[in-house]
């Protein structure tokens, strides 16, 4: 292997995550019927079957060097942060394959059978009611609010980077996202949360129009003249029948609403928001033994996963609207919201005795193994809370989609 030190550092991060089972690893030879379905500047996307399961998406980065290895880790960390949203395409795990004399990594993702939003609208626009359009718009805004909730801007929201799975919006193109405090000012302007809100406004127009992007002319590409006119305030005319306040693309960024205000506006208008899920066949479940018998070693496993960002961690103080909804021998279950998110989550608590901490680690590993399946409750991350008692022990929680 002839990688430089910078590449090796990122590769070691990935390999440690696989070895310690922080990330789900898929053997590449277990994939079949691999079909190329899309390409970008840095990656190619394939549809594939895995064992007896149809279908998953494989996203491979072009070449493995210091830049691409860093981007793989960058995308994994972002996916871990926003994985609780039902409107962000879901990261499942990682695989690797031979690439020349070396190897390369690929991310394993949920496959969106509906394709991208642009093609979905072309095929289905005439069937969509205003209620349908509001549901799609609401889901889109929820996905973007999840990114902003985690201090992340997307930077490339368009109907080609948004997927549709069984009628549900899924944001993709996460590899281009940036932390808000890392945004790029090299081009003389700042891409920020309001840039994403503008893009959402364009997408809302596309949803309410004939399903085409603004200023679309078949066979013609956008040019510099049009881009300049848009920057100077040119906008499409609202489609007759479009409800008031649907447009959020004000040319002055400070006048645009926040994404949370957009979510609230759309939430008031929708009449139905039932999640639709696919029903895969022949799920292979796997029993995982945990051989670690020492409580401290189990806690070390959790703490190392948090420190190196293999598991998503949230400060317990970031949860709100905490309401107990169940109790069991393991502990208690609570319904919560995270920061400003409208997405309900569940917190499942465990005490920090030897048996319970071992159970946490074992259950987290099992949930990682079956996370690809839509009909198994999905694990998203972990938090912890100190109980002030005569004997002070930490109370561990992990949170899942409710």
Write the layout of secondary structure elements.
Blueprint: H1 5-19, E1 31-39, E2 43-50, E3 53-61, H2 66-82, E4 91-99, E5 102-110, H3 117-124, H4 130-149, E6 152-153, E7 162-165, E8 168-171, E9 178-179, H5 193-208, H6 224-231, H7 259-269, H8 295-307, E10 319-327, E11 332-338, E12 344-350, H9 354-369, E13 379-386, E14 394-401
Antiparallel strand pairs: 1-2, 2-3, 3-5, 4-5, 6-9, 7-8, 10-11, 11-12, 12-14, 13-14
Helix pairs in contact: 1-2, 4-5, 4-7, 8-9
Task: Characterise the protein shown here.
InterPro entries: Kinase-like_dom_sf, Prot_kinase_dom, Protein_kinase_ATP_BS, Ser-Thr/Tyr_kinase_cat_dom, Ser/Thr_Kinases-Pseudokinases. GO terms for molecular function: ATP binding; protein serine/threonine kinase activity. The protein has 402 residues and is an alpha+beta fold. It folds into three domains: 5-110, Phosphorylase Kinase, domain 1 (2-Layer Sandwich), CATH 3.30.200; 117-269, Transferase(Phosphotransferase), domain 1 (Orthogonal Bundle), CATH 1.10.510.10; 295-401, 2-Layer Sandwich (Phosphorylase Kinase, domain 1), CATH 3.30.200. It has helices at 5-19, 66-82, 117-124, 130-149, 193-208, 224-231, 259-269, 295-307, 354-369, and strands at 31-39, 43-50, 53-61, 91-99, 102-110, 152-153, 162-165, 168-171, 178-179, 319-327, 332-338, 344-350, 379-386, 394-401. The strands form four sheets. A five-stranded antiparallel sheet has the order 1-2-3-5-4, with helices on one face. Strands 10-11-12-14-13 form a five-stranded antiparallel sheet, with helices on one face. Helix 4 (130-149) runs antiparallel to helix 5. Residues 184-188, 272-294 and 387-396 have low confidence and may be disordered.
């Amino acid at each position: 292997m002839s990688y430089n030190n910078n590449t090796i550092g990122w590769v070691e991060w990935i390999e440690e995550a696989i070895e310690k089972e922080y990330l789900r690893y898929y053997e590449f030879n277990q994939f079949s019927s691999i079909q190329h379905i899309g390409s970008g500047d840095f990656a190619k996307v394939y549809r594939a079957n895995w064992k007896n399961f149809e279908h998953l998406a494989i996203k491979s980065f072009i070449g493995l060097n210091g830049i691409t290895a860093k981007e793989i880790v960058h995308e994994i960390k972002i996916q871990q942060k926003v994985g609780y949203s039902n409107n962000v395409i879901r990261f499942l795990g990682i695989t690797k394959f031979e690439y020349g004399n070396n190897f390369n990594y690929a991310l394993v993702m949920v496959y969106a059978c509906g394709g991208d939003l642009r093609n979905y609208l072309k095929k289905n626009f005439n069937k969509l009611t205003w209620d349908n359009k509001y549901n799609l718009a609401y889901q889109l805004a929820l996905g973007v609010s999840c990114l902003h909730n985690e201090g992340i801007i997307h930077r490339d929201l368009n109907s080609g980077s948004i997927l549709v799975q069984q009628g549900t919006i899924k944001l993709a193109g996460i590899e281009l996202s940036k932390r808000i405090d890392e945004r790029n000012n090299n081009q003389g302007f700042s891409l920020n949360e309001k840039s994403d809100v503008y893009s959402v406004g364009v997408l809302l127009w596309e949803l309410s129009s004939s399903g085409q992007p603004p200023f679309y002319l078949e066979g013609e590409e956008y040019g510099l003249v049009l881009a300049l006119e848009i920057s100077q305030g040119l906008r499409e005319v609202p489609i007759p029948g479009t409800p008031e306040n649907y447009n959020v693309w004000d040319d002055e960024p400070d006048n645009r609403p926040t994404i949370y205000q957009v979510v609230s506006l759309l939430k008031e208008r929708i009449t139905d928001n039932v999640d639709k899920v696919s029903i895969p066949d022949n799920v292979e479940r796997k029993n995982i033994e945990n051989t670690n018998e020492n409580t401290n070693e189990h806690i070390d496993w959790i703490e190392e996963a948090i420190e190196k960002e293999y598991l998503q961690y949230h400060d317990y103080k970031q949860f709100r609207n905490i309401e107990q909804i169940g109790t069991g021998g393991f502990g208690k279950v609570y319904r919560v919201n995270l920061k400003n998110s409208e997405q309900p989550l569940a917190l499942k608590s465990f005490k920090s005795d030897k048996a319970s901490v071992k159970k946490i680690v074992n259950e987290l590993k099992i949930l990682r193994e079956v996370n690809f399946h839509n009909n198994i409750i999905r694990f998203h991350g972990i938090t912890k809370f100190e109980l002030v008692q005569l004997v002070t022990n930490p109370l561990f929680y992990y949170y899942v989609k409710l």
